[in-house]
Amino acid sequence: MNRILLACSAGMSTSLLVTKMKEAANEKGVDCEIWAVAQDKAPKDMEEADVLLIGPQMKFMKKKFEKTAQEVGIPVDVIDPMSYGRVDGKAVLEKALELMER
Amino acid sequence: MSRFMDVLENILMPIADKLNNNRYLTSLRDGFMIALPLIIFGSIFVVIANLPFLDKLIGAEAYAEYQSALGAASAGTLSIMATFVIVGIGYKLTEYYKGEAVYGGVTALAAFLILTPQIVGDVTGVIAAENLGAKGMFLGIFTAFASAELYRFFTEKNWTIKMPQGVPEAVSRSFSALIPITFTLTIFLIIRIIFSYTTFGDVQNFIYTVVQAPLTSLGSGLPATIVAVLLIQIFWFFGLHGQIIVNSVMDPIWYSLATENLAAFKAGEAVPHIVNKQFIESFIVGMGGSGMTLAVILGIFLIGRSRQMKDIGKLGAPAGIFNVNEPIIFGLPIIMNPLVLIPWLVAPVVVAIITYLVMASGLVPPPTGVIVPWTTPTILNGAIATNSWQGGVLQAFNIGVVFLIWWPFLKIMDNQYYESEKNDNGESNDKSA
Description:
The structure holds 2 protein chains of 2 kinds.
Chain A: E1 2-8, H1 13-28, E2 32-38, H2 42-45, E3 51-54, H3 62-72, E4 76-78, H4 81-85, H5 89-101
Parallel strand pairs in A: 1-2, 1-3, 3-4
Helix pairs in contact in A: 1-5
Chain B: H1 2-21, H2 23-49, H3 54-58, H4 60-75, H5 81-96, H6 101-115, E1 119-120, E2 123-124, H7 129-132, H8 137-156, H9 169-176, H10 178-196, H11 203-219, H12 222-237, H13 242-266, H14 277-285, H15 294-303, H16 307-321, H17 326-331, H18 341-360, H19 380-386, H20 389-423, H21 425-432
Antiparallel strand pairs in B: 1-2
Protein backbone atom coordinates (compact mmCIF):
# COMPACT_ATOMS: atom_id res chain seq x y z
CA MET A 1 0.00 0.00 0.00
CA ASN A 2 1.37 3.40 -1.04
CA ARG A 3 0.13 6.22 1.11
CA ILE A 4 0.38 9.55 -0.64
CA LEU A 5 -0.41 12.80 1.15
CA LEU A 6 -1.03 16.08 -0.67
CA ALA A 7 -1.16 19.47 1.02
CA CYS A 8 -2.15 22.97 -0.03
CA SER A 9 -3.67 25.97 1.73
CA ALA A 10 -7.12 24.54 2.35
CA GLY A 11 -6.77 21.15 0.71
CA MET A 12 -9.20 22.23 -2.02
CA SER A 13 -7.16 22.39 -5.20
CA THR A 14 -5.08 19.37 -4.21
CA SER A 15 -8.27 17.38 -3.72
CA LEU A 16 -9.01 17.89 -7.43
CA LEU A 17 -5.72 16.17 -8.07
CA VAL A 18 -6.52 13.35 -5.64
CA THR A 19 -9.45 12.22 -7.79
CA LYS A 20 -7.31 12.19 -10.92
CA MET A 21 -4.44 10.41 -9.18
CA LYS A 22 -6.77 7.71 -7.91
CA GLU A 23 -8.00 7.15 -11.45
CA ALA A 24 -4.42 6.90 -12.67
CA ALA A 25 -3.55 4.47 -9.88
CA ASN A 26 -6.51 2.26 -10.77
CA GLU A 27 -5.45 2.20 -14.40
CA LYS A 28 -1.92 1.32 -13.44
CA GLY A 29 -3.11 -1.29 -10.98
CA VAL A 30 -1.14 0.24 -8.10
CA ASP A 31 -2.60 -0.03 -4.63
CA CYS A 32 -2.72 3.53 -3.32
CA GLU A 33 -4.27 5.57 -0.58
CA ILE A 34 -4.25 9.24 -1.62
CA TRP A 35 -5.64 12.13 0.35
CA ALA A 36 -5.35 15.92 0.56
CA VAL A 37 -5.28 18.14 3.64
CA ALA A 38 -4.95 21.81 4.56
CA GLN A 39 -1.39 22.83 5.37
CA ASP A 40 -1.94 23.13 9.13
CA LYS A 41 -3.03 19.49 9.28
CA ALA A 42 -0.18 18.17 7.17
CA PRO A 43 2.43 17.62 9.93
CA LYS A 44 0.03 15.37 11.84
CA ASP A 45 -1.02 13.38 8.78
CA MET A 46 2.59 12.90 7.70
CA GLU A 47 2.94 10.17 10.32
CA GLU A 48 0.54 8.03 8.32
CA ALA A 49 1.95 8.83 4.88
CA ASP A 50 4.80 7.48 2.79
CA VAL A 51 5.33 10.68 0.84
CA LEU A 52 4.19 14.31 1.01
CA LEU A 53 3.58 16.40 -2.08
CA ILE A 54 3.00 20.15 -1.69
CA GLY A 55 0.96 22.32 -4.06
CA PRO A 56 3.33 24.66 -5.95
CA GLN A 57 1.65 27.74 -4.49
CA MET A 58 2.75 26.59 -1.04
CA LYS A 59 6.35 25.89 -1.97
CA PHE A 60 7.53 28.35 0.66
CA MET A 61 6.36 25.86 3.28
CA LYS A 62 8.69 23.13 2.06
CA LYS A 63 11.42 23.90 4.56
CA LYS A 64 8.99 23.74 7.44
CA PHE A 65 7.52 20.43 6.29
CA GLU A 66 10.95 18.96 5.65
CA LYS A 67 11.78 19.15 9.33
CA THR A 68 8.80 16.99 10.27
CA ALA A 69 9.35 14.78 7.23
CA GLN A 70 12.85 13.96 8.41
CA GLU A 71 11.54 12.97 11.82
CA VAL A 72 8.97 10.66 10.25
CA GLY A 73 11.36 9.57 7.53
CA ILE A 74 9.38 10.35 4.39
CA PRO A 75 10.31 12.30 1.25
CA VAL A 76 8.76 15.71 0.49
CA ASP A 77 8.56 17.55 -2.78
CA VAL A 78 6.71 20.34 -4.53
CA ILE A 79 4.36 19.36 -7.35
CA ASP A 80 5.42 20.56 -10.79
CA PRO A 81 3.32 23.67 -11.61
CA MET A 82 2.40 22.51 -15.13
CA SER A 83 1.17 19.10 -13.97
CA TYR A 84 -0.71 20.88 -11.21
CA GLY A 85 -2.40 23.28 -13.61
CA ARG A 86 -3.41 20.50 -15.95
CA VAL A 87 -4.55 18.36 -13.00
CA ASP A 88 -2.36 15.66 -14.49
CA GLY A 89 -2.97 12.82 -12.04
CA LYS A 90 -0.79 10.39 -13.92
CA ALA A 91 2.34 12.56 -13.89
CA VAL A 92 1.97 13.43 -10.21
CA LEU A 93 1.33 9.81 -9.26
CA GLU A 94 4.45 8.71 -11.10
CA LYS A 95 6.44 11.40 -9.36
CA ALA A 96 5.12 10.24 -5.99
CA LEU A 97 5.97 6.61 -6.68
CA GLU A 98 9.42 7.59 -7.86
CA LEU A 99 10.05 9.61 -4.69
CA MET A 100 9.04 6.69 -2.51
CA GLU A 101 11.39 4.31 -4.27
CA ARG A 102 14.41 6.43 -3.50
CA MET B 1 12.62 39.97 -18.62
CA SER B 2 13.39 36.52 -17.30
CA ARG B 3 16.43 37.78 -15.34
CA PHE B 4 14.24 40.48 -13.85
CA MET B 5 11.71 37.83 -12.82
CA ASP B 6 14.40 35.73 -11.22
CA VAL B 7 15.52 38.70 -9.18
CA LEU B 8 11.94 39.42 -8.08
CA GLU B 9 11.31 35.83 -7.16
CA ASN B 10 14.48 35.80 -5.11
CA ILE B 11 13.08 38.72 -3.16
CA LEU B 12 9.53 37.39 -2.75
CA MET B 13 10.34 33.78 -1.81
CA PRO B 14 12.21 34.71 1.38
CA ILE B 15 9.43 37.14 2.37
CA ALA B 16 6.81 34.43 1.93
CA ASP B 17 9.06 32.00 3.77
CA LYS B 18 9.64 34.40 6.68
CA LEU B 19 5.99 35.38 7.03
CA ASN B 20 4.87 31.82 6.88
CA ASN B 21 7.38 30.34 9.23
CA ASN B 22 7.09 33.09 11.80
CA ARG B 23 5.63 31.29 14.80
CA TYR B 24 3.43 34.21 15.82
CA LEU B 25 1.91 34.74 12.39
CA THR B 26 1.44 30.99 11.91
CA SER B 27 -0.32 30.58 15.23
CA LEU B 28 -2.38 33.68 14.49
CA ARG B 29 -3.54 32.24 11.17
CA ASP B 30 -4.19 28.79 12.61
CA GLY B 31 -5.98 30.38 15.56
CA PHE B 32 -8.37 32.09 13.17
CA MET B 33 -8.82 28.80 11.38
CA ILE B 34 -9.95 27.17 14.62
CA ALA B 35 -12.54 29.91 15.05
CA LEU B 36 -13.74 29.77 11.46
CA PRO B 37 -16.31 26.94 11.66
CA LEU B 38 -17.96 28.68 14.62
CA ILE B 39 -17.93 32.02 12.81
CA ILE B 40 -19.51 30.46 9.74
CA PHE B 41 -22.16 28.74 11.86
CA GLY B 42 -23.06 32.11 13.38
CA SER B 43 -23.03 33.75 9.95
CA ILE B 44 -25.47 31.22 8.53
CA PHE B 45 -27.96 32.05 11.25
CA VAL B 46 -27.54 35.78 10.80
CA VAL B 47 -28.39 35.28 7.14
CA ILE B 48 -31.42 33.11 7.96
CA ALA B 49 -32.58 35.56 10.64
CA ASN B 50 -32.39 38.47 8.22
CA LEU B 51 -33.91 37.01 5.08
CA PRO B 52 -35.18 39.89 2.95
CA PHE B 53 -38.95 40.38 2.70
CA LEU B 54 -39.64 37.87 5.48
CA ASP B 55 -40.99 40.61 7.77
CA LYS B 56 -43.62 41.48 5.18
CA LEU B 57 -44.55 37.84 4.77
CA ILE B 58 -45.10 36.91 8.43
CA GLY B 59 -45.73 40.32 9.98
CA ALA B 60 -43.51 42.51 12.15
CA GLU B 61 -44.35 40.91 15.46
CA ALA B 62 -43.73 37.33 14.40
CA TYR B 63 -40.59 38.47 12.64
CA ALA B 64 -39.19 40.04 15.81
CA GLU B 65 -39.88 36.83 17.70
CA TYR B 66 -38.28 34.77 14.96
CA GLN B 67 -35.19 36.97 15.01
CA SER B 68 -34.73 36.84 18.75
CA ALA B 69 -35.17 33.06 18.72
CA LEU B 70 -32.32 32.67 16.24
CA GLY B 71 -30.21 35.44 17.74
CA ALA B 72 -28.44 33.22 20.25
CA ALA B 73 -26.70 31.35 17.46
CA SER B 74 -24.67 34.33 16.36
CA ALA B 75 -24.46 35.88 19.84
CA GLY B 76 -22.77 32.72 21.07
CA THR B 77 -20.28 32.52 18.22
CA LEU B 78 -19.76 35.51 15.93
CA SER B 79 -20.26 38.22 18.53
CA ILE B 80 -17.65 36.75 20.87
CA MET B 81 -15.25 35.52 18.20
CA ALA B 82 -12.17 37.00 19.89
CA THR B 83 -12.45 34.34 22.61
CA PHE B 84 -12.15 31.50 20.10
CA VAL B 85 -9.25 33.17 18.32
CA ILE B 86 -7.48 33.58 21.68
CA VAL B 87 -7.94 29.93 22.62
CA GLY B 88 -6.79 28.98 19.11
CA ILE B 89 -3.63 31.10 19.25
CA GLY B 90 -2.77 30.01 22.79
CA TYR B 91 -3.28 26.40 21.76
CA LYS B 92 -1.29 26.61 18.53
CA LEU B 93 1.64 28.56 19.97
CA THR B 94 1.91 26.23 22.96
CA GLU B 95 1.70 23.26 20.61
CA TYR B 96 4.56 24.79 18.62
CA TYR B 97 6.63 24.85 21.81
CA LYS B 98 5.59 21.24 22.39
CA GLY B 99 3.80 22.09 25.62
CA GLU B 100 0.34 21.05 26.87
CA ALA B 101 -1.60 22.83 24.12
CA VAL B 102 -5.00 22.75 25.83
CA TYR B 103 -3.63 24.53 28.88
CA GLY B 104 -1.93 27.05 26.63
CA GLY B 105 -5.33 27.76 25.08
CA VAL B 106 -7.40 28.13 28.24
CA THR B 107 -4.67 30.07 30.05
CA ALA B 108 -4.65 32.60 27.21
CA LEU B 109 -8.42 32.95 27.53
CA ALA B 110 -8.22 33.41 31.28
CA ALA B 111 -5.46 36.00 30.90
CA PHE B 112 -7.63 37.91 28.45
CA LEU B 113 -10.65 37.79 30.75
CA ILE B 114 -8.51 39.05 33.62
CA LEU B 115 -7.59 42.09 31.52
CA THR B 116 -11.19 42.65 30.39
CA PRO B 117 -13.49 45.08 32.24
CA GLN B 118 -15.95 43.07 34.30
CA ILE B 119 -18.46 45.80 34.80
CA VAL B 120 -21.11 47.32 32.55
CA GLY B 121 -22.47 50.65 33.73
CA ASP B 122 -22.95 50.06 37.45
CA VAL B 123 -23.53 46.35 37.18
CA THR B 124 -20.55 44.29 38.29
CA GLY B 125 -19.93 40.66 37.42
CA VAL B 126 -20.83 41.06 33.75
CA ILE B 127 -18.67 41.36 30.66
CA ALA B 128 -19.92 43.31 27.66
CA ALA B 129 -20.13 41.01 24.65
CA GLU B 130 -18.49 43.64 22.44
CA ASN B 131 -15.31 43.31 24.51
CA LEU B 132 -15.19 39.63 23.60
CA GLY B 133 -15.78 40.38 19.92
CA ALA B 134 -14.44 43.05 17.62
CA LYS B 135 -13.30 45.40 20.37
CA GLY B 136 -11.25 42.80 22.15
CA MET B 137 -9.64 41.32 19.08
CA PHE B 138 -6.23 42.98 19.23
CA LEU B 139 -5.87 42.77 22.99
CA GLY B 140 -6.84 39.12 22.66
CA ILE B 141 -4.14 38.46 20.08
CA PHE B 142 -1.41 40.17 22.10
CA THR B 143 -2.55 38.51 25.31
CA ALA B 144 -2.55 35.08 23.70
CA PHE B 145 1.01 35.56 22.43
CA ALA B 146 2.23 36.86 25.78
CA SER B 147 0.42 34.26 27.84
CA ALA B 148 1.69 31.37 25.72
CA GLU B 149 5.23 32.73 26.00
CA LEU B 150 4.98 33.12 29.77
CA TYR B 151 3.39 29.68 30.14
CA ARG B 152 6.28 28.18 28.19
CA PHE B 153 8.82 30.17 30.19
CA PHE B 154 7.51 28.95 33.54
CA THR B 155 7.10 25.40 32.27
CA GLU B 156 10.66 25.32 31.01
CA LYS B 157 11.90 26.67 34.34
CA ASN B 158 10.52 23.37 35.56
CA TRP B 159 8.96 24.88 38.64
CA THR B 160 6.36 22.19 38.57
CA ILE B 161 4.89 19.98 41.25
CA LYS B 162 6.05 16.42 40.81
CA MET B 163 3.52 13.78 41.77
CA PRO B 164 4.60 10.46 43.25
CA GLN B 165 4.32 7.40 41.03
CA GLY B 166 0.93 5.71 40.95
CA VAL B 167 -1.01 8.96 40.69
CA PRO B 168 -3.23 8.85 37.58
CA GLU B 169 -1.66 10.68 34.69
CA ALA B 170 -4.54 13.10 34.25
CA VAL B 171 -4.23 14.19 37.86
CA SER B 172 -0.47 14.68 37.71
CA ARG B 173 -0.79 16.59 34.47
CA SER B 174 -3.21 19.10 35.90
CA PHE B 175 -0.86 19.60 38.85
CA SER B 176 2.16 20.01 36.62
CA ALA B 177 0.34 22.82 34.84
CA LEU B 178 -0.64 24.49 38.11
CA ILE B 179 2.48 26.51 38.82
CA PRO B 180 3.11 27.82 35.28
CA ILE B 181 -0.55 28.84 35.01
CA THR B 182 -0.56 30.50 38.42
CA PHE B 183 2.53 32.54 37.67
CA THR B 184 1.33 33.48 34.17
CA LEU B 185 -2.09 34.65 35.28
CA THR B 186 -0.69 36.48 38.30
CA ILE B 187 1.36 38.62 35.94
CA PHE B 188 -1.77 39.53 33.99
CA LEU B 189 -3.58 40.35 37.21
CA ILE B 190 -0.76 42.72 38.15
CA ILE B 191 -0.96 44.35 34.72
CA ARG B 192 -4.68 44.85 35.21
CA ILE B 193 -4.17 46.47 38.58
CA ILE B 194 -1.44 48.77 37.23
CA PHE B 195 -3.68 49.92 34.39
CA SER B 196 -6.57 50.67 36.72
CA TYR B 197 -4.45 53.54 38.02
CA THR B 198 -3.90 55.05 34.56
CA THR B 199 -6.21 57.36 32.64
CA PHE B 200 -7.11 54.49 30.30
CA GLY B 201 -8.72 52.62 33.18
CA ASP B 202 -8.20 49.18 31.68
CA VAL B 203 -5.85 47.42 29.28
CA GLN B 204 -8.59 46.76 26.78
CA ASN B 205 -9.33 50.43 26.43
CA PHE B 206 -5.60 51.16 26.12
CA ILE B 207 -4.94 48.65 23.30
CA TYR B 208 -8.15 49.61 21.54
CA THR B 209 -7.43 53.34 21.43
CA VAL B 210 -3.67 53.17 20.92
CA VAL B 211 -3.32 50.22 18.55
CA GLN B 212 -6.55 48.77 17.24
CA ALA B 213 -8.59 51.84 16.31
CA PRO B 214 -5.78 53.53 14.31
CA LEU B 215 -4.81 50.28 12.56
CA THR B 216 -8.34 49.29 11.62
CA SER B 217 -9.20 52.75 10.35
CA LEU B 218 -6.08 52.60 8.17
CA GLY B 219 -7.02 49.10 7.00
CA SER B 220 -10.56 50.11 6.10
CA GLY B 221 -9.33 52.80 3.73
CA LEU B 222 -9.10 52.37 -0.02
CA PRO B 223 -5.31 52.96 -0.36
CA ALA B 224 -4.34 50.23 2.11
CA THR B 225 -6.83 47.89 0.47
CA ILE B 226 -5.34 48.47 -2.97
CA VAL B 227 -1.86 47.78 -1.63
CA ALA B 228 -3.05 44.55 -0.01
CA VAL B 229 -4.81 43.43 -3.19
CA LEU B 230 -1.77 44.24 -5.33
CA LEU B 231 0.51 42.31 -2.99
CA ILE B 232 -1.77 39.27 -3.17
CA GLN B 233 -1.66 39.43 -6.97
CA ILE B 234 2.12 39.88 -7.12
CA PHE B 235 2.75 36.90 -4.86
CA TRP B 236 0.42 34.76 -6.95
CA PHE B 237 2.15 35.87 -10.14
CA PHE B 238 5.26 34.16 -8.83
CA GLY B 239 3.23 31.09 -8.00
CA LEU B 240 3.04 31.77 -4.27
CA HIS B 241 -0.27 31.65 -2.40
CA GLY B 242 -0.87 35.39 -2.04
CA GLN B 243 -3.80 35.37 0.35
CA ILE B 244 -2.28 33.06 2.87
CA ILE B 245 0.75 35.36 3.01
CA VAL B 246 -1.02 38.73 3.08
CA ASN B 247 -3.94 37.54 5.23
CA SER B 248 -1.62 36.46 7.99
CA VAL B 249 -1.04 40.17 8.55
CA MET B 250 -4.42 41.62 7.48
CA ASP B 251 -6.93 39.14 8.94
CA PRO B 252 -7.07 40.64 12.44
CA ILE B 253 -7.95 44.00 10.91
CA TRP B 254 -10.42 42.68 8.34
CA TYR B 255 -12.17 40.40 10.84
CA SER B 256 -12.46 43.20 13.41
CA LEU B 257 -14.05 45.45 10.80
CA ALA B 258 -16.46 42.67 9.81
CA THR B 259 -17.48 42.06 13.41
CA GLU B 260 -18.11 45.77 13.96
CA ASN B 261 -20.29 45.81 10.85
CA LEU B 262 -22.20 42.82 12.07
CA ALA B 263 -22.97 44.42 15.42
CA ALA B 264 -24.39 47.45 13.61
CA PHE B 265 -26.32 45.29 11.15
CA LYS B 266 -27.95 43.23 13.88
CA ALA B 267 -28.89 46.43 15.69
CA GLY B 268 -30.57 47.65 12.50
CA GLU B 269 -28.09 50.50 12.00
CA ALA B 270 -26.06 51.45 8.92
CA VAL B 271 -22.88 49.36 8.74
CA PRO B 272 -19.79 51.51 9.36
CA HIS B 273 -17.08 49.90 7.19
CA ILE B 274 -17.04 49.25 3.45
CA VAL B 275 -13.78 47.34 3.50
CA ASN B 276 -13.78 44.31 5.76
CA LYS B 277 -13.14 40.57 5.54
CA GLN B 278 -16.05 40.03 3.17
CA PHE B 279 -15.17 42.94 0.89
CA ILE B 280 -11.96 41.08 0.07
CA GLU B 281 -13.36 37.57 0.28
CA SER B 282 -16.53 38.06 -1.79
CA PHE B 283 -15.76 40.93 -4.11
CA ILE B 284 -12.11 40.25 -4.86
CA VAL B 285 -11.29 36.58 -4.21
CA GLY B 286 -14.83 35.22 -4.41
CA MET B 287 -15.19 35.73 -8.13
CA GLY B 288 -13.53 32.52 -9.29
CA GLY B 289 -10.58 32.77 -6.91
CA SER B 290 -7.67 35.22 -6.61
CA GLY B 291 -7.51 37.52 -9.60
CA MET B 292 -11.22 36.96 -10.31
CA THR B 293 -10.52 34.27 -12.88
CA LEU B 294 -14.16 33.38 -13.36
CA ALA B 295 -14.10 36.12 -15.99
CA VAL B 296 -11.05 34.49 -17.57
CA ILE B 297 -12.89 31.17 -17.83
CA LEU B 298 -15.88 32.92 -19.41
CA GLY B 299 -13.48 34.64 -21.80
CA ILE B 300 -11.95 31.33 -22.80
CA PHE B 301 -15.36 29.92 -23.61
CA LEU B 302 -16.37 33.03 -25.52
CA ILE B 303 -13.27 33.64 -27.63
CA GLY B 304 -10.98 30.59 -27.28
CA ARG B 305 -10.17 28.84 -30.55
CA SER B 306 -7.04 26.93 -29.58
CA ARG B 307 -7.16 23.40 -28.18
CA GLN B 308 -4.93 24.46 -25.30
CA MET B 309 -7.29 27.25 -24.20
CA LYS B 310 -10.38 25.12 -24.53
CA ASP B 311 -8.83 22.29 -22.54
CA ILE B 312 -7.80 24.56 -19.72
CA GLY B 313 -11.25 26.16 -19.73
CA LYS B 314 -12.93 22.79 -19.34
CA LEU B 315 -10.51 21.81 -16.59
CA GLY B 316 -10.86 25.09 -14.75
CA ALA B 317 -14.60 25.73 -14.99
CA PRO B 318 -16.01 23.23 -12.46
CA ALA B 319 -13.52 24.24 -9.78
CA GLY B 320 -13.76 27.91 -10.77
CA ILE B 321 -17.45 28.02 -9.93
CA PHE B 322 -16.45 27.30 -6.34
CA ASN B 323 -13.60 29.82 -6.44
CA VAL B 324 -10.79 27.28 -6.68
CA ASN B 325 -8.57 28.46 -9.50
CA GLU B 326 -5.22 26.72 -9.30
CA PRO B 327 -5.87 24.93 -12.63
CA ILE B 328 -6.19 28.31 -14.38
CA ILE B 329 -3.32 29.95 -12.49
CA PHE B 330 -0.88 27.14 -13.21
CA GLY B 331 -2.41 25.82 -16.39
CA LEU B 332 -3.17 28.85 -18.55
CA PRO B 333 -0.58 29.74 -17.19
CA ILE B 334 -0.82 32.99 -15.30
CA ILE B 335 2.27 32.49 -13.16
CA MET B 336 5.44 33.96 -14.65
CA ASN B 337 3.58 34.85 -17.83
CA PRO B 338 4.51 38.44 -18.76
CA LEU B 339 1.67 38.54 -21.29
CA VAL B 340 -1.02 38.46 -18.62
CA LEU B 341 0.77 40.49 -15.98
CA ILE B 342 -1.16 43.65 -16.85
CA PRO B 343 -4.72 42.30 -16.56
CA TRP B 344 -3.67 40.17 -13.61
CA LEU B 345 -2.57 43.24 -11.64
CA VAL B 346 -4.96 45.84 -13.01
CA ALA B 347 -8.32 44.04 -12.93
CA PRO B 348 -8.51 43.39 -9.16
CA VAL B 349 -7.49 46.97 -8.38
CA VAL B 350 -10.09 48.38 -10.77
CA VAL B 351 -12.75 46.13 -9.26
CA ALA B 352 -11.73 47.10 -5.73
CA ILE B 353 -12.11 50.78 -6.64
CA ILE B 354 -15.46 50.28 -8.40
CA THR B 355 -16.83 48.21 -5.54
CA TYR B 356 -15.65 50.74 -2.97
CA LEU B 357 -17.16 53.70 -4.82
CA VAL B 358 -20.44 51.95 -5.55
CA MET B 359 -20.79 50.99 -1.90
CA ALA B 360 -19.77 54.43 -0.70
CA SER B 361 -22.42 56.00 -2.92
CA GLY B 362 -25.08 53.78 -1.37
CA LEU B 363 -26.04 52.04 -4.60
CA VAL B 364 -25.06 48.69 -3.10
CA PRO B 365 -24.97 48.15 0.66
CA PRO B 366 -21.54 47.24 2.10
CA PRO B 367 -21.02 43.69 3.44
CA THR B 368 -22.95 43.15 6.66
CA GLY B 369 -20.07 41.34 8.31
CA VAL B 370 -21.44 37.81 8.02
CA ILE B 371 -18.66 35.49 6.95
CA VAL B 372 -19.57 33.73 3.73
CA PRO B 373 -17.51 30.58 3.06
CA TRP B 374 -15.10 31.50 0.27
CA THR B 375 -16.22 28.53 -1.81
CA THR B 376 -19.71 30.02 -2.25
CA PRO B 377 -20.33 30.64 -5.97
CA THR B 378 -20.26 34.17 -7.35
CA ILE B 379 -23.49 36.24 -7.34
CA LEU B 380 -24.92 34.11 -4.53
CA ASN B 381 -21.76 35.01 -2.62
CA GLY B 382 -22.19 38.75 -3.09
CA ALA B 383 -25.91 38.63 -2.33
CA ILE B 384 -25.39 36.79 0.95
CA ALA B 385 -22.45 38.98 1.98
CA THR B 386 -24.45 42.20 1.55
CA ASN B 387 -27.85 40.69 2.40
CA SER B 388 -29.21 42.24 -0.81
CA TRP B 389 -29.65 41.29 -4.44
CA GLN B 390 -27.61 44.36 -5.39
CA GLY B 391 -24.50 42.59 -4.08
CA GLY B 392 -25.02 39.82 -6.61
CA VAL B 393 -25.62 42.27 -9.43
CA LEU B 394 -22.44 44.15 -8.53
CA GLN B 395 -20.47 40.90 -8.76
CA ALA B 396 -21.94 40.15 -12.18
CA PHE B 397 -21.08 43.66 -13.32
CA ASN B 398 -17.53 43.31 -11.98
CA ILE B 399 -17.08 40.03 -13.82
CA GLY B 400 -17.92 41.93 -17.00
CA VAL B 401 -15.32 44.58 -16.16
CA VAL B 402 -12.65 41.96 -15.53
CA PHE B 403 -13.53 40.26 -18.79
CA LEU B 404 -13.11 43.52 -20.74
CA ILE B 405 -9.70 44.12 -19.16
CA TRP B 406 -8.58 40.57 -19.99
CA TRP B 407 -10.14 40.34 -23.42
CA PRO B 408 -7.28 41.71 -25.63
CA PHE B 409 -4.67 39.71 -23.74
CA LEU B 410 -6.65 36.48 -23.91
CA LYS B 411 -7.10 37.06 -27.62
CA ILE B 412 -3.34 37.42 -28.20
CA MET B 413 -2.63 34.34 -26.13
CA ASP B 414 -5.27 32.30 -27.89
CA ASN B 415 -3.96 33.34 -31.31
CA GLN B 416 -0.44 32.32 -30.34
CA TYR B 417 -1.59 28.87 -29.21
CA TYR B 418 -3.83 28.54 -32.25
CA GLU B 419 -1.05 29.34 -34.70
CA SER B 420 1.43 27.01 -33.06
CA GLU B 421 -1.15 24.23 -32.96
CA LYS B 422 -1.86 24.74 -36.66
CA ASN B 423 1.85 24.69 -37.50
CA ASP B 424 2.82 21.49 -35.79
CA ASN B 425 -0.55 19.93 -36.44
CA GLY B 426 -1.81 16.88 -34.55
CA GLU B 427 1.35 16.29 -32.61
CA SER B 428 1.10 19.16 -30.18
CA ASN B 429 -2.63 18.70 -29.76
CA ASP B 430 -2.05 15.35 -28.17
CA LYS B 431 0.48 16.85 -25.80
CA SER B 432 -1.80 19.60 -24.67
CA ALA B 433 -4.62 17.21 -23.90
